[in-house]
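Exercise 7 asks you to align residues with tokens for two separate proteins.
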Amino acid sequence: MLRKVLVALFLSVGLMAGEVSLAVAANMTDAIEVLKKAFMQTHPDIKVSSVLGSSGKLSAQIIAGAPYDIFLSANMKFPQNLYADGVAVSKPIVYASGALAMMSTKGFDLNRGISVINDAKVEKISLANPKTAPYGTATVEAFKSAGLYEKVESKLVYAESISQAVQFATTAADIGFVNMSAFYSPKMKAYVKGKDWVAVDTKLYTPIAQGMVILKKGENNADAKAFYDFLSSAEAKSIFRDFGYVVNE
């Protein structure tokens, strides 16, 4: 009898535990873990899981029926398209704005600015795929704004996502273009600003406003709504800032 009571109690507790599934742009790899941990401090009964990838690929998965409650994109275009098509149920809002950085572990003088990529000694330039990753789109825009795209096009090496672009930038590439927020994660703090990386002139590309939406699956999930609201809280904004993002007050 006691065993049956304990089993019933265990099952009832399990049923009360909520779940939230996130589709998260790869530039948020480190920040999202801190955000999830902070949220679960006050919501210990809610399990938050996340899948990382390029915004374009995640958007395609969502359209194909992937069971996510919330989508955090690296731009506004993909969430806006999902909302227009009725796949998202909340109007897209900006949760943070990201910035581009240029890095090299090969000793190139990055303080010369973006023109350094045209150096004859620079043979491989890594960036995220501009077809699926907003940071890749911004990188190509910066090249074109600087009048360098046609000069360096043959040197470009495309990564599937911004996180893979970071990997390429720290290994095979001579110079890589990545999300500036990457350098605020513990594993990247060894790279020194002004030596190993510099910010890309923001005048060269359109600001990377990152948008989020609640998806159809999360429409009636109160726990998903709680996490979505948390992302606009003062605590979450502080975390975004800690990772180099710009957020509105």
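Second protein for Exercise 7:
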Amino acid sequence: MVFFEECPVTERLKFDYDKVLIRLKCMKIHEYSEPGQFIEIKIPDGNDPLLRRPFSIADTEKDGVWVIVQQRGRGSKKIAEAEKLDIIGPLGTGFKTTKKSILVGGGSGIAPIIFFYRKYPEVVESVILGFRTMPELNWKGIFSDEKVKIVTEDGSSGLKGLVTDYTTMDSSKIYFACGPTPMMKALKNKISPDRLYFSLESYMGCGTGICMGCAVKKTKGDGYFRVCTEGPVFRADEIEL
């Protein structure tokens, strides 16, 4: 089910140098959200910029959802500073498994990974999270959890390097990943694509499959998938990155 809601921002936490965590109080969206799904947020204060912005859901609570907002331009800056936001969700398909899983996230792509771990900890073998430098905020104690491995490019915390340096193939596990395209491509070269699932961070202007701005090419046959409706979760051997 998809809902349209006006949601007050009840918490705003600085996460790292260009990201904030915001908590949106909502009536229904949190009840139906699954890891890997996203919400579309309207830019507040007019129609400039015009199109909504997609954000993966990072967690849900009894009356709200959390998202990570990376401040890249005028639109995301307005969202990060707003007191109330117009949102649509939950949208798209989520991660689905009952098998033991290894989770890999990079940058703002950690959002659906964290949500999956918090909702289904019993099926998670380990979590690998990568950053350029260690975030200032250990939100909900995630980074100190015994199953979570932190990797930083500058070596400021945890292991130094990239998440792909510490991800190895285990044919008995399913892999779920979200992050920058170079990270995903590198994972596809290390992990069997039929056991690897991506949550894509494509720009989704409408979130409903109308605008076709988020299309990704299929690996088999002609044509494209619409990331917002047929994704954002795809098996790695289904799509070309």
